[in-house]
Write a structure and sequence with these properties.
Distance between the termini of chain A: 33 Å
Oligomer: homodimer
Largest interface: A-B, 58 and 59 residues
Helix content of chain A: 40-55%
Number of strands of chain A: 14
CATH superfamily of the largest domain in chain A: Type I PLP-dependent aspartate aminotransferase-like (Major domain)
Strand order of the largest sheet of chain A: 2-10-9-8-5-3-4
Largest sheet of chain A: 7 strands, mixed
CATH topology of the largest domain in chain A: Aspartate Aminotransferase, domain 2
Number of helices of chain A: 13
CATH class of the largest domain in chain A: Alpha Beta
Order of helices and strands of chain A: EHHEHEHEHEEEHEEEHHHHEHEEEHH
Structural class of chain A: alpha/beta
CATH architecture of the largest domain in chain A: 3-Layer(aba) Sandwich
Strand content of chain A: 5-15%
Number of domains of chain A: 2
Chain lengths: 384, 384
């Protein structure tokens, strides 16, 4: 079995695979309605929210992004997007496709959004929506949200957060941080196969939805229709991906059993051990320590090393997947995911060892022994 | 395990469940690219097409419907929809959401579209797209397509066909019938869990896509982007639902091993046996014999019988799911699916027996013995 340490999917627990292949029932069967209820309950737990609306959309994380925008942006609405990587760019694309009036604040890839520019833009444009990415999967930056949320709320804008790479692995507080629209994917820190997009909407968001003048341009992602299927009415909209929902339920149960707090600690600790190990190998992280995303670690490719060859060695000789850079970071970084089930000490050790061997084979001198020793110290601190 | 004889999902072969829970690899892993290649190859076989573009979209059949419309309709384009049930209505809704100029021809629910009205409307409106549903899941009508295709082509319109309930169970000839846009779902006659939407586009369709003036309003379903991921470029668009694609591949292999022709015969034969059995129970079909959809059989609820109670008895006491009527047919019909893996002689017999018992329990006099005998004759004809 391959060890998945790329930008997602992550490895999946045996319990989730078993759930995935449970015999189907009809999508309006009372048994499945129970599954739907429990999923919504556990999504509220995982998002840290009391929102009524907390459901998995029948598409991948990108469908969640589209739903979070098309349902709330009407033609001509001003929308501010913070762009610090590929997924911020994608939001801009979607805003334009739904006729929003786009304003954007850019950060250099590898850095968080500059708070002062965001504040200024929010006060100037008074956008209906302020949209940012919590964990930029293309750069490995964790965007701090609390200050941004405060400024957004002052202008009475809706706060939209992409939590694809953070939900279930990195602290995310939908209610406390007053996030109005939040979506994620299943294949990252939740360690469920890709195919669904958990999404939650605050009461303020739901009110905006109710007061729309124009129909949502997507029928498939129209939340007013989707929530009637997931709500008390159980009105048929589309046939839910039943097996995927079985799997998601099991993955969410695992999150709940471990508790979010323990999960966050686990992600932090393994991230720290990995960074220490990478540093001992003589590599440099792309992101400043305080903004590093625990679930996705970006490390610079040293001069004279070919990025792709190292990755292929890892995959072919060690059965380990990691990711390369996207866009302007192509060839310049590796992206190493430590998400959900994949994020354990044994995997960090196995990876550091295999990575050292692959780097050496590509002519980069480094010592696996040193790296493993130093990474081990991180765990010892806890064990002590 | 429940016997799924509703309007979908149908029962799933053990091989497909096993594929579903195969360990994940990354969505750009060479192994997964092989899976993607074989899926496209087998989709061409199943759709009976040489189209270059034949892929599964990462959403259910409804996402396929939306994709087939939003990619090809531009603001102001005239679109003609034939409406003979709920799914025709849904197409009208989507056409309006993407700014198409809608014209519609209606048929009474339970009947196919009147060819003369369709011809007149096509000549009058000269629509860019003529859209019809091949198998109306809400009524159990199979819409003949060959004549419609001829008239559509004469006016140089694109011919769009919803094959959600027919692909893999009922003859469908994408190339021979000159269908330009065709989509389906996985959970009906392909007997894979719901979650993907196979879709194919003719070269004429692809040309319309290339010559669009405006961006497609959906980013998630933008076929120009999606096909770059599925084509030679393998450009990242979104993370494909990997497990669902494993399952679809296995389901398509099963279709190919059986052959389409054998599959169509099997669906026809079991449909005929079911109809004979239902008739022997004293029930009347909704649809005239020549337009009956083999994969979804609609039968009228006799006076003084409560539709829902019979369905609940079947589910609770016999572990069999069937469907009730939708929209204006609510309470008036049952919808009995015989799709893919579910469509075998043993299931027809088990259903007829359980249905007879449930009807009797609700005060409707009928004989299971007679119905089974007469249904059995249909198979004997073949065996002889």
């Amino acid at each position: 079995m391959k060890l998945l340490l790329g930008p997602g999917p992550s490895n999946v627990d045996r319990r989730v695979y078993e759930a995935l292949s449970r015999p189907l029932v009809g999508h309006l069967d009372p048994e499945f309605l129970e599954v739907m209820n429990e999923i919504q309950h556990l999504l509220r737990y995982t998002f840290r929210t009391q929102n009524r609306l907390a459901i998995p959309l029948s598409g991948t994380g990108s469908a969640g992004m589209e739903a979070a925008l098309v349902n709330f942006v009407q033609k001509g609405d001003p929308v501010l997007v913070g762009v610090a990587g590929l997924f911020g760019e994608r939001m801009c694309d979607i805003v334009q496709r739904c006729g929003g009036r786009l304003a954007r604040v850019d950060a250099d890839w590898g850095h968080p959004l500059p708070l002062d520019s965001m504040e200024r833009a929010i006060r100037t444009h008074r956008p209906r929506i302020v949209a940012v990415v919590h964990g930029e999967t293309s750069t490995g930056v964790r965007q701090p949200l609390e200050e941004l949320s405060r400024v957004t709320r002052e202008q009475d804008s809706l706060f939209l957060v992409d939590a694809v790479t953070t939900l279930g692995g990195v602290p995310l507080e939908v209610d406390r941080w007053q996030i109005d629209l939040c979506y994620s994917g299943t294949q990252k820190c939740l360690s469920c196969p890709p195919g669904l997009s958990p999404l939650t909407v605050s009461d303020r968001g739901a009110e905006v939805l109710r007061s729309r003048r124009l129909p949502v341009q997507s029928w498939y992602l129209d939340l007013t229709l989707v929530q009637k299927y997931w709500g008390a009415e159980r009105t048929y909209h589309h046939t839910a991906p039943i097996s995927m929902n079985y799997a998601l339920l099991e993955a969410l149960r695992i999150v709940h059993e471990e508790t979010l707090e323990a999960r966050w600690s686990r992600h932090e600790e393994n991230h720290r051990a990995l960074v220490v190990g990478l540093s001992a190998l003589g590599l440099e992280m792309l992101v400043d320590p305080e903004y590093r995303l625990w679930s996705l670690n970006t490390v610079k490719v040293p001069p004279a090393v070919e990025e792709e060859r190292v990755r292929q060695r890892l995959l072919r000789q060690h059965d380990i997947e990691i990711g390369g850079g996207l866009g302007i970071l192509r060839g310049k970084i590796w992206r190493i995911g430590l998400m959900g089930t994949s994020c354990v000490r044994e995997n960090v050790q196995r990876f550091v060892e295999a990575f050292a061997a692959s780097l050496q084979a590509e002519g980069f001198p480094c010592s696996a022994r040193d790296a493993l020793d130093q990474a081990g110290q991180v765990y010892k601190t806890r064990d002590a």
